[in-house]
Amino acid sequence: MKMLANLLMFVFLFGCANTDTIGNTLNVDHCEIIEKTINLPELQQYYHVSSFPERVPLIVLFNHPTGGCPELNKFESPVKISSPDKSNEFKNKPHIKINMEIVDSDNIKVFFSYIPEGIKGQLKLQKNNSHWAVSESKIVEI
Asked: Whole-model pTM?
């Protein structure tokens, strides 16, 4: 009986210890996905930050919790990331909306819109050696 109790305690503690690791891994993936999206070469021509300095810092509304991406910068300024449910504080500021849809463990679809320029787009990302790579992208004016 003691052995069973010890085994259950070990399983419980091991599961709790790995929760942070799993959470951090997902957070890194989310940050990498945001980075791949905002740095998409075809998107760069639409930011116009020299003409519209109010577009700095870049504000991202992302449909998954990230816990923040402290290393993520755009236009020499940290990117501000918020979830759509907290979007009221940013609704009157230029921002990019990014929605991620998991297809499977190695494939993700990303849908984004950048309202200040009237564009929307889609990316397909594929996991390659534990990093995400853009396999397809498309941007259209709306």
From this structure: 0.79
The answer to whether the beta carbons of residues 123 and 36 sit under 8 Å apart is yes
Q: How far apart are CA 137 and CA 130, in angstroms?
A: 20
- CB of 122 within 8 A of CB of 137? yes
Query: Which amino acid is it at 41?
Result: P
Strand partners of residue 131: 128
How many structural domains comprise the chain?
1
Give the largest CA-CA distance in the chain.
72
Tell me which residue range forms the domain holding 137: 2-141
* Contact between 77 and 58 (Cβ < 8 Å): yes
User: Can you give the C-alpha Rg of the chain in angstroms?
Assistant: 19
pLDDT tens digits, 116-126: 999 999 999 99
